[in-house]
Design goal:
By secondary structure, this protein is an alpha/beta fold. It is built from 11 helices and 18 strands. The longest helix has 23 residues.
Length: 421
């Protein structure tokens, strides 16, 4: 029997497993996918250079523990004071300085309005408090969805206001997913992770727990469940006894929204000498066309990485990779000309919302249900603990929030287990 079993090897599960291992505990880490990292996934196979399919920013860098670890491990990141776009393309022309300033005033205004409502204790849909009269409404909705992965109608103002952000959001050159993996390896290089090993049933009825997998049953004194909320809410793990109602409600109240990427690799630089630049698009000619924003020439690589969010992202994923590529390329061609079509060396798309082991981007509380996030900090009979970005009340949706929740769950597990003999 193991002292602990950690279910899920994303940022939270890896942190928990490493801490338990370093404390001398016998720990099993089980991962349903064929790789570690979860939503922290750096892809080097598609283009031969690193790009993050999932989390990308070292959010709140001055208080983010992963930044210090990045420094220790030699991971380079780009320090930027703002994620504001260099330019905004309006469909057939670039915005003027005044228009661009108006765009960012509108985007900042919607963030302020939603946060203000939450700070006032109002737990309503963000759509109820945002300015719908602005000519930049599509872009303000896009950015709100990009930050929360949810459309404004499904975003709690109270939950949004609880998130804390210092405004220091730094991209990692070799990939945030690579950093998460390196941090775990540095902390516990001998920690074994069993891949392709989904837990289908978690029995917490006895003195310890029993986790059923296709490879057999793993028994332990305690378990740390570090999987996305959608995995639990969608019934991919059978609990015996069933989850208490308050916990089942909490997992359902914190769905993973949609935030996807479409990436283009070119055979030469097509955007100019600037490295890691940003561009927003909104087509004023077609009022039903959704916006998309791009990271251009990231760390000097001839690439454009488009970011999609909310309902538009989910619909494009459902339509398939070709539709995602066409949508992103149309915006790039509008902004930079059709000549860049001849220089496309490769494309790649994400599909987090249809990944059965993930089920979306990151958690956001539904309107009226923000209080349910705190429920995930409780345990099941002091035998099953929860970790992951959704467990963090102030750094949810982030890799460092997940990392910290994993450490906290491991510390609680160690206290329950007592000191090693």
């Amino acid at each position: 029997m193991f002292d602990a079993v950690v279910i899920g090897a994303g940022a939270a599960g890896l942190a928990a497993g490493a801490r338990l291992y370093r404390a001398g505990r016998k720990v099993a880490v089980l991962e349903a996918a064929g790789r570690i990292g979860g939503r922290a996934f750096t892809d080097t196979a598609a283009f031969g250079v690193a790009w993050d399919r999932g989390c990308h920013w070292l959010h709140s860098a001055s208080v983010n523990p992963l930044r210090k670890l990045a420094d220790e491990l030699g991971f380079i990141y780009l320090q930027r004071g703002s994620r504001q776009a260099r330019d905004t393309h309006l469909g057939d022309r670039w915005a003027t300085v005044d228009e661009r300033n108006a765009v960012w005033a509108a985007i900042g205004g919607v963030f302020e309005a939603v946060k203000r409502a939450g700070d006032e204790g109002r737990d309503v849909a963000a759509s109820e408090v945002m300015d719908r009269s602005t000519p930049w409404l599509r872009l303000t909705r896009h950015w709100l969805s990009l930050m929360s992965a949810a459309d404004a109608e499904r975003l709690s103002t109270l939950d949004f206001a609880a998130y804390t952000d210092t405004g220091e959001n730094y991209p990692v050159e070799k990939g945030y997913g690579a950093l998460v993996a390196a941090v775990a390896n540095a902390a516990a290089p001998d920690l074994a992770v069993t891949l392709d090993c989904p837990v289908t049933r978690l029995d917490w009825s006895g003195a310890g727990i029993a986790a059923d997998t296709p490879h057999g049953t793993v028994r332990a004194r305690v378990a740390i469940l570090a999987v996305p909320t959608s995995v639990v809410a969608n019934g991919h793990i059978d609990f015996a006894p069933a989850l208490p109602v308050d916990l089942a409600e909490a997992f359902a109240a914190l769905p993973l929204g949609a935030a996807e990427k479409v990436a283009f690799h070119f055979d030469r630089d097509v955007f100019g000498p600037a490295s890691t630049d940003y561009c927003d698009t909104i087509d004023l000619r077609h009022p039903t066309r959704a916006p998309i924003n791009f990271t251009l020439h990231p760390f000097g690589h001839p690439m454009a990485i488009g970011q999609l969010a909310g309902e538009n992202a989910a619909e494009l994923v459902a339509a398939g990779p070709a539709a995602m590529v066409d949508f992103g390329l149309s915006a790039l061609v509008d902004a930079f000309g059709s000549d860049l079509r001849a220089h496309i060396a490769g494309t790649a798309t994400t599909a987090w919302v249809t990944d059965p082991l993930i089920g979306g981007a990151y958690s956001c509380a539904l309107p009226g249900l923000a209080h349910m996030r705190a429920r995930l900090s409780q345990s099941l009979d002091d035998k099953v603990l929860f970790a992951g970005e959704a467990v963090s009340t102030h750094a949810y949706s982030t890799a460092h929030g997940a990392h910290l929740s994993g450490l906290a769950a491991a510390d609680t597990a160690l206290a329950l287990l007592g000191r090693p003999a």
